[in-house]
Design goal:
The radius of gyration is 30 Å and the shape is elongated. It has a domain at 2-73: Nucleic acid-binding proteins (OB fold (Dihydrolipoamide Acetyltransferase, E2P)), CATH 2.40.50. It has one helix at 50-57; strands at 2-20, 23-36, 39-48, 64-76, 79-91. 6% of the residues lie in helices and 51% in strands. It has a five-stranded mixed β-barrel with strand order 1-2-3-5-4. By secondary structure, it is mainly beta.
Length: 136
């Protein structure tokens, strides 16, 4: 599930790194404050990978940013944990380049046929006394 949220960068937590069977890894969590109705709410996001950590380094606490993220949950010892994994960070309000709409070719309207009068009530079929006689 891909989601987007705009808000203010409130806090950047320390970079965590290590080595796993797949190689070295790095992640950094940060707090985003965003409007929620009449109030503000906060959420902790995770920037996974060295490239995302470097992308987060471009922003300072107090900057308005937009994050695109995936929401994931997992169970451990009977408890569920949510993870907001960021896959893009950009300045808030930065309009993405609009995608051009595909060009549509319209056929010209057909020329009106001969002057044919509109149907009248006299043109309607008479009611059938047979109830099983369906018109379709």
């Amino acid at each position: 599930m891909a989601l987007e949220l705009e808000g203010t960068l409130r806090q950047k937590l320390a970079v965590q790194s290590g080595t796993s069977a797949r190689g070295t890894w790095a992640k950094q969590e940060f707090i985003l404050e965003f409007p929620d109705g009449n109030f503000t709410a906060q959420a902790c996001f995770t920037a996974w990978g060295q490239d995302k950590v470097q992308e987060l380094d471009k922003y300072q606490v107090g900057d308005k940013i937009k994050v695109s993220f995936n929401l994931k949950s997992r169970e451990y010892n009977g408890r569920w944990y949510n993870d907001l994994q960021v896959w893009r960070i950009s300045p808030a309000g930065a309009a993405e380049a609009p995608k051009p709409a595909p060009r549509q070719e319209f056929a010209p309207a057909p020329a009106p046929a001969q002057d044919i009068p509109a149907p009248t009530l006299d043109d309607m079929p008479a009611d059938s006394p047979d109830p099983d006689d369906l018109p379709f």
